[in-house]
Amino acid sequence: MISIITVAITPAVALLTFFYLKDEFEQEPIIMVIRSFIFGALLVFPVMFIQFAIQHETNIVSPFVLSFFQASFIEEFLKWFIVLITIFYHVHFNQRYDGIVYATAVALGFASVENVLYLLANGVDMAFFRAIFPVTSHALFGVVMGFYFGKAKFNRDKKYRYLFLAFFFPYLLHSLYNLILVLFNAWMYVLIPFMIVLWIVALRHIKKANRLQALHHLKREIS
User: Fold this and answer.
1) Can you give the C-alpha Rg of the chain in angstroms?
2) Which residues constitute the domain of residue 194?
3) In the chain, at which end, N or C, are there fewer CB atoms within 10 A of the end residue's CB?
């Protein structure tokens, strides 16, 4: 069991370390990142309860509706809500890249527990697949979410617009991910290009967040 848990968590830890070290300015306190990771991990249980209730109390069978609501909406909304109430107004959220670190930590905490439960139930044969697709996709959704949280934090006139986008874009991407799995028999041929595009989008958001922070530091030095 310990070996399965280790295999399940290792990809999330590796991804979180990668995104944490991408911060070019002021890296966040480890305890705060771990705290966000734990909050994300705890989200799995209310998500499971809500999804179970929906499955048993409704007659929704449309793959389109299920893809855009049952998993993606609930999961991304709760992750967004956790970042909003535990991180967004926190004193340590003082750089544009910080949103990416914390939102990714929440997302990977969630993905880790989800992965542990899946591998405990189905064995480690799917561990590599799970690491490359579900775990990584949660991380990349987190990068996009965190980028817009950073924009909201430091653009007061557009705060609520960016807060909405911090939920909407990860939700849309997650829904498309689910839809690929549902609609295509040979889904691997569609999912791999989708993941490549998702990586490109995430890395561009990381680069832009660091560039915006660099401009902010430059303005402070000039003034």
Assistant:
1) 18
2) 2-222
3) C
Cβ pair 223, 215 in contact under 8 A? no
Residue 126's alpha-carbon distances to 14, 16, 98, 198, 199, in angstroms, are 18, 21, 32, 22, 22
Task: Give the pLDDT of residue 162.
Answer: 98
- 69 pLDDT band, cuts 50/70/90, is confident
What's the predicted TM-score (pTM) here? 0.93
Encode 181-198: b = buried (16+ Cβ within 10 Å), e = exposed.
eeeeeeeeeebeebbeeb
Nearest to 145 by CA among 161, 174, 169, 110: 169
The C-alpha atoms of residue 92 and residue 217 are separated, in whole angstroms, by: 17
Q: Of 92, 108, 90, 75, give the one whose Cα is nearest residue 9.
A: 108
Look at residue 216 and tell me whether its pLDDT is greater than 80: no
User: What is the structure's pLDDT at 78?
Assistant: 97
Q: Which of 91-100, 117-126, 169-178 has the lowest mean pLDDT?
A: 117-126
Report how many domains make up the chain.
Answer: 1
| Three-state DSSP state, 58 | coil
Residue 158 sits at the vertex; the CA angle it makes with 156 and 163, to the nearest 5 degrees, is: 95
